[in-house]
Specification:
Elements (H helix, E strand, L loop, with lengths): L10 H7 L15 E4 L2 E11 L9 E6 L8 E4 L4 E7 L8 E3 L23 E6 L5 E6 L4 H6 L4 E6 L8 E10 L14 H4 L8 E4 L7 E5 L2 E8 L6 E4 L6 E5 L2 E6 L5 E4 L4 E7 L7 E6 L7 E12 L25 E9 L27 E3 L16 E3 L4 E8 L5 E5 L4 E6 L2 E2 L5 E2 L1 E4 L4 E7 L4 E7 L2 H5 L3 E6 L1
Protein name: Multicopper oxidase family protein
InterPro entries: Cu-oxidase-like_N, Cu-oxidase_2nd, Cu-oxidase_C, Cu-oxidase_fam, Cu_oxidase_CS, Cu_oxidase_Cu_BS, Cupredoxin, TAT_signal
Pfam families: Cu-oxidase, Cu-oxidase_2, Cu-oxidase_3
Length: about 475
């Protein structure tokens, strides 16, 4: 297997390879500071972090509560929460609570759902999470740079009854582009990258620290929550010597199943919950591999077994999580719509005649769009006056066909709802999968369904942030 060495890749090598890799990982994030029994205080501000390892120089980053990743927010299913967000950046920001089905005014899209939080000001987000699961939070203002400089954190909404595991672990992955001096490279919004795979970095972090190995014990059962907070990097994780079972995707429980070909595909913004029965040998180490990009496989970390054993046989308890209260769509009476993804490198000629809605602007892009949906482009992060591409009657079941006519991958994220994934390229998708971020390969045709039960104007966009900023964004309205 070809490996990328555990060092920062040169900018030249990055451009040649489409994204060199260095691994970082480790300690769990600190909890958010409580402001009351039902609330948290989260501060967005500049700070410094050692992204390339303990023996490397610190990097100037932007972070929530001074840590990379930001403070872990733990909530309870069905319990109201208040989250006070303070902006100590020198630019406006918002927070989007990714994957949580909340009211439209709390969704964090500037102009569309709220006024941006100005420097020195704060905003209180209030909602009651209806679903247990793994979610995350990030900016939706100047998101390419703000997320690219470190503003991301995880949200865990705990089930009403504890899940039968020995440990519950979080691995949040972020992707950075660092210079040889350890600084975050400039050049956010490069037009060429935006028309291809986006800003893929040369340094990958796991919980913000370099991870040579993560400690485990033979016989224990672990719930491992994977979160991809990268701008553009897609991951395909393998755990040789182990048989992980997928129990939830994007926070929503599914039928427990082993991943196809043993690879967990994790696009930007996606989350996957796994359960492991650790059956390795005490004292041994087992690689965790990401091999999504051809010729750029690398070791993410190792599962390091100590000499002890928790139990000799697998824990006798169900792997199935309790289902969340998602309304089941009525496919027989559903309204049917199609959204076609267009544009990008190798499709640029098709963009010249499109009737684009070129509003909002984008760094380094000359306010132009290179992507579209159904011939329309919306650039930037969100703004007032965004006209819906589709309007749904509240309470109506909807079947949405997503057609990727481009040569590139797109993780398509729909705010405020979860989507039942019905089929991919004409084949039924098994395991009762619900997702808020659906990863589409080139030329994919994916059929999803949902009940339009959450009123408001909701963003639908690609979560390769360069693609979103360059036009692959629209609004779907529920009235």
């Amino acid at each position: 297997m070809k490996r990328v060495s555990n060092r920062v890749v040169s900018r030249r090598g990055l451009l040649q390879a489409g994204g060199g890799l260095l691994l970082s990982a480790a300690l769990p994030p600190f909890p958010a500071r409580a402001i009351s029994s039902d609330g948290y205080r989260i501060v967005a501000a500049p700070t410094r972090a050692r992204l390339a390892g303990a023996d490397q120089t610190e990097t100037d980053v932007w972070a929530y509560n001074g840590t990379v990743p930001g403070s872990l927010v733990r909530l309870r299913q069905g319990k109201p929460v208040r989250l006070l967000v303070e902006n100590r950046l020198d630019q406006e920001t918002t927070v989007h609570w990714h994957g949580i089905r909340l009211s439209n005014t709390m969704d964090g899209v500037p102009g569309l759902t709220q006024s941006p939080i100005k420097p020195g000001e704060s905003f209180v987000y209030e909602f009651t999470p209806p679903d247990a699961g793994t979610f995350w939070y990030h900016p939706h203002a100047n998101s390419l740079e703000q997320l690219g400089r470190g503003l991301a954190g995880a949200v865990i909404v705990e089930e009403r009854e504890p899940v039968a595991v020995d440990r519950d672990l979080l691995w949040l992955f972020s992707d950075w582009r660092l210079t040889d001096e350890g600084r975050i490279a400039s050049g956010f919004g490069n037009r060429m990258e935006a028309a291809m795979s986006g800003r893929v970095g040369n340094t990958v972090t796991l919980n913000g620290r370099v991870s040579e190995a993560e400690p485990f014990r033979a016989g224990e059962r672990v719930r491992l929550r994977l979160v991809n907070a990268s701008l553009a990097r897609i991951m395909a994780l393998r755990f040789p010597g182990h048989r992980p079972v997928v129990i939830a995707i994007d926070g929503q429980p599914c039928d427990p199943h082993e991943p196809a070909a043993g690879r967990i595909l994790l696009g930007p913004a996606m989350r996957v919950d796994l359960v492991f029965d650790l059956q390795g040998e005490p004292g041994e180490r087992y690689d965790v591999i990401d091999d999504f990009y051809n010729g750029l496989s690398y070791r993410v970390t190792q599962l390091a077994y100590d000499q002890g054993t928790v139990r000799r046989h697998a824990l006798d308890a169900s792997l199935e999580l309790p289902r969340n209260p998602l309304p089941e769509p009525d496919l027989a009476s559903a309204a049917r719509h199609t959204l076609t993804l267009q544009g990008g490198m190798m499709s640029m000629a098709g963009m010249s005649g499109m009737n684009g809605m070129m509003r909002g602007g984008m760094m380094g892009m000359g306010h132009g769009a290179v992507w579209a949906m159904n011939g329309l482009s919306m650039t930037g992060d969100g703004h007032a006056g965004m006209e819906p591409a589709l309007t749904f009657e509240r309470g109506r079941s909807v079947v949405l066909v997503l057609r990727n006519e481009t040569a590139w991958w797109h993780p398509m994220h729909f705010h405020g709802h979860s989507l039942r994934v019905l089929s991919r390229n004409g084949k039924r998708v098994p395991h009762r999968q619900w997702q808020d971020t659906v990863l589409m390969a080139p030329k994919d045709v994916i059929e999803v369904a949902f009940v339009a039960d959450n009123p408001g104007d909701w963003m639908l966009h690609c979560h390769v942030i360069d693609h979103q900023m360059a036009g692959m964004m629209t609004v779907l309205s529920v009235t």
